[in-house]
Amino acid sequence: MKKGLVFLMLITLFVSLAYASLGFKIGVVTGTVSQGEDEYRGAENVIKKYGSDIIHVIYPDNFMQEQETTIARIVELAYDPSVKAIVICQAVPGTVAAIRKVKEFRPDIVFVAGTPHEDPPIVERVADVSFNTDDERRGITIIDLAHKMGAKTFIHYSFPRHLSMELIARRKDLMEQRCKELGIQFVSVSAPDPMGEQGITGSQQFILEDVPRQLAKYGKDTAFFSTNCAMQEPLITAILKHGGIFPEQCCPSPTHGYPGALGIAIPEDKKGDFNYILKAINEKIVEGGGAGRFATWPVPTNMLFVEAGVEVAIKLVNGEIKSADMDAIKAVFDEVASQKVKGVGITFNRFSDKGNFYLVIADSVIFGVTEF
């Protein structure tokens, strides 16, 4: 009996020592795997690192119609006095209202918002730190990359809900302008909103059917881009099958759309090994005849936002850095990114002068061209 008790105590001690103890808890709020696998896996990664000091909750797939549920889940985290920070990615509609509500009774809680869907100036005022891909600069860099890959036409898939978001709308305008400068035909196509009546399945089916139509009309040197996460897998599937160019996802990442579209089953022991994942994708793309026509960022954007967001939150709670210290926050991102893929080039910009809303961009890899 005593031996068994001692053994149990040793096991408990070993498990506790396996995690880095924070001395407080951090809430992590993400979508489900179907809406955004990268951020969900990012939450799993920080749980592996910090154990029960991380409380992971998810918002509903139908978050546009269920904002009250999102708000309730964020607020509920704040009722736990041991929770000192909350990291939200993607920061879907309802996040701003939730932060305001929490700040009324827990002004001490640090909020980190990744990929905000609400107006950046408002998000910047309520969250302690926010991150998004640098969509303005991507309006130039994505078109430049498509041009480098041989694009003569650029198809932009989106829908009114996304185009009402300031950064997405500005990126689209810059894409169109850059296409004119480079002699690329820009085509805007309205796709079904996955939050609409047809749901995710309907929007994915539209992509599978529309890509071959567009290729028949404009030819194989047509690049495709969609503003929606759920559309990335069918885009990759259809483009590899029928021809075309895929320069980048809405949320650039090796694991965003590629494994599902290419039938790559990533072993458990390789899930965080992005060198392995990039090589596996490269082999499938080359095998499928898509060399030089598919690209992405070498690190997963939203996963990075969750994992770096947690590290930033820890440093903010401990008073090690300030929200407006861009160099210190970028250093955290560099460290987290380099743990995934060595030598990743990441640049930071501010949304506003001296603000705490940071815009992130990384170097691209082109499958069949870049050495892995």
List keywords for this structure.
372 residues; Rossmann fold; alpha/beta; 3-stranded parallel β-sheet
Commentary on this structure:
- With 372 residues, this protein is an alpha/beta fold.
- It has two domains: 2-127 and 301-340, Rossmann fold (3-Layer(aba) Sandwich); 135-297, 3-Layer(aba) Sandwich (Rossmann fold), CATH 3.40.50.
- The chain has 14 helices and twelve strands.
- The chain has helices at 2-18, 33-50, 67-78, 95-105, 120-126, 135-148, 160-163, 166-182, 199-218, 232-242, 258-262, 274-287, 301-317, 326-340, and strands spanning 25-30, 54-58, 83-89, 110-114, 129-133, 153-158, 185-190, 222-226, 295-296, 346-350, 357-362, 365-366.
- The strands form three sheets. Strands 2-1-3-4-5-11-10 form a seven-stranded mixed beta sheet, with helices on both faces.
- 47% of the residues are buried.
Layout of strands and helices, then pairs:
Elements: H1 2-18, E1 25-30, H2 33-50, E2 54-58, H3 67-78, E3 83-89, H4 95-105, E4 110-114, H5 120-126, E5 129-133, H6 135-148, E6 153-158, H7 160-163, H8 166-182, E7 185-190, H9 199-218, E8 222-226, H10 232-242, H11 258-262, H12 274-287, E9 295-296, H13 301-317, H14 326-340, E10 346-350, E11 357-362, E12 365-366
Parallel strand pairs: 1-2, 1-3, 3-4, 4-5, 5-11, 6-7, 6-8
Antiparallel strand pairs: 9-12, 10-11
Helix pairs in contact: 2-13, 3-4, 6-8, 9-10, 13-14
Number of helices: 14
What is the H/E string? HEHEHEHEHEHEHHEHEHHHEHHEEE
What spatial form do the alpha-carbon principal axes imply? globular
Helix/strand class: alpha/beta
CA-to-CA gap between the ends?
55 Å
Radius of gyration: 21 Å
Provide the number of structural domains: 2
Helicity, as a percent range:
40-55%
Major sheet description: 7 strands, mixed
List low-confidence stretches.
5-16
Strand content: 15-25%
Q: Kindly report the spatial arrangement of strands forming the biggest sheet.
A: 2-1-3-4-5-11-10
CATH class of the largest domain: Alpha Beta
Determine the CATH topology of the largest domain.
Answer: Rossmann fold
Number of strands: 12
